[in-house]
Every structure is written in C-alpha cells, then in structure tokens.
Amino acid sequence: MSKRVLLEGVSVAYGRTRVLDPVELDLPAGSFTALLGPSGCGKSTVLGAVAGFVSPAGGRVTAGAGPVTGPGPDRGVVFQHYALFPWRTARGNVEFALKRLGLPRAERRRRALAALAEVGLAEGAEKYPAQLSGGMQQRVALARALAAEPEVLLLDEPFGALDTLTRSRMQTLLRELWQRRGTTVLFVTHDIDEALALAQRVVVLGGTPGRVLADHPVPDGPPDPDLRSLIARHLHALPTG
Ligand SMILES: Nc1ncnc2c1ncn2[C@@H]1O[C@H](COP(=O)(O)OP(=O)(O)OP(=O)(O)O)[C@@H](O)[C@H]1O
C-alpha cells in the first residue's frame, strides 16, 4: 500500500519569516527518500507540510489523488521523541492511536498486537513505556504508525536519540518493513551515513530559507565513497566539481 507524494512549489513562512523557498519534490509510490540537511534548514517543515501539520504559504502538496489539507490516516508519522502515554501499555498506546479510525475494539487489539509483533515487540506488549528501553519505545512509536496501515510513512530523525548499536538495528528493521510493505517513505536526518544506508535517494536541503541543493539516487550495493563525498560537498555548501 503506497501513494505518490508530490510537492509543487511548496514554500513555508512562520509569521513573516520565510523558512522554505519553493520546493519541488516527487516521491514515487513505494519509494524510500532521505531528506538530508543541517539543523534548521527546514527538513521538519517539509515533512510537516506532507503530514499536514504545516500549511504552505504557496504551492501545494498532494498525496495520491488528493491534496493534503491536514493530517490523515494515510500518512503515518514517527518523531525522534516517541510521545507515548506513560500510563498506557505498549499495546494501549497503539490501540489508542487507532481510535480515530473508528475501528471496533477487537480489531484495534488485533492490529495493535500484529504491529507490535512486526516490530519485534510481541513480548513487550503489556509493558509500560518506563519499563522499555529507548529502542523499544521507538519500536512502539513505529508500531503505532504502522498499525493504521498508512500508505506514506514520514520519519523525523526517528533514531537520533538512540545509541549506535540500537540505531543500526532500527535501521535494519525499517528497511525490512519498507521492503515488506512497500510504503512510500520520507526519512529526515542530518546524518549522511544514515541517509545513504537507508534510502534509494538522498535529497539535500540547505540554505536560509531552505531549498533543495541536490538530489541523488543511491545505487544498491556497497557504500560508494565518491557519492558520499559528493553529497558531503553539497551538505557543506562547498563548490562542486
Ligand atoms: N513553529 C515555528 N515558528 C517559528 N519558526 C519556526 C517554527 N518551526 C521551525 N521554525 C524555524 O524554521 C526553520 C526551519 O526549521 P525546521 O525545524 O524545519 O528545520 P530542520 O532542518 O528540521 O531542523 P532540525 O534538524 O534542527 O530539526 C528554523 O529556522 C526554525 O527555527
């Protein structure tokens, strides 16, 4: 299940400050794109525009056949900070997120348990967030997004707070989920190696206001040091070539 996402001339201002110059971005259905850039360049703003949290000052965002006018269950979002309810169990947190879909209780439970199993957390379903490690809490947040069966998955530095080993395990899990589900993925990060390890394509955002500086496909196979240094040059806004 996946949808094409299209940003056409999308610009964003907070008050009178323009933070994003018009962005053109076409994310084909089922693609995995990393949005890479330094802090403050507008990555979360782009993701927020696709999620429907941020209203563009100009241009338009389309997901599938329809314009994005606000958040919707077709687009799941995962943030760096998991924002789990501490008084609900892992299963309770996922079930709660499904309430807005109007699903019957038994179906919410079935989907929650299936999503927790999918992220490797079947055993932790009845635990509370305080009883779970950071990696496990992020798995719950991922399960919460997946349980709604979104066609687009939007991740904003989801593994930024995790230690190196946990982070690498979560990256592997995310790749597997994407390969299995075929969901369109937009992954925000400021880590070039994370972008290259995960995505089929790396879009570099930079400048003030932010704009797209580069857009590179990432070939399958072992890491390509030339591609890495090319993207690094864009990232640090040095002249290329
Ligand atoms: N709600 C807001 N009101 C005013 N300015 C904002 C708001 N949200 C973000 N900004 C500003 O917009 C710019 C882009 O922010 P954004 O969070 O999109 O960048 P980012 O690349 O995701 O940064 P980071 O990697 O630090 O999260 C920044 O200068 C930020 O200070």
UniProtKB/TrEMBL annotation:
Pfam families given in the database record: ABC_tran (PF00005)
Keyword annotations of the record: ATP-binding, Nucleotide-binding, Transport
Claim: rRNA processing is one of the keywords in the record: no
SUPFAM superfamilies reported for this sequence: P-loop containing nucleoside triphosphate hydrolases
GO MF, one annotated term: ATP binding
Record PROSITE patterns: ABC_TRANSPORTER_1 (PS00211), ABC_TRANSPORTER_2 (PS50893)
Domain ABC transporter: residue ranges: 5-232
Protein name: ABC transporter
Taxonomic source organism: Streptomyces roseus
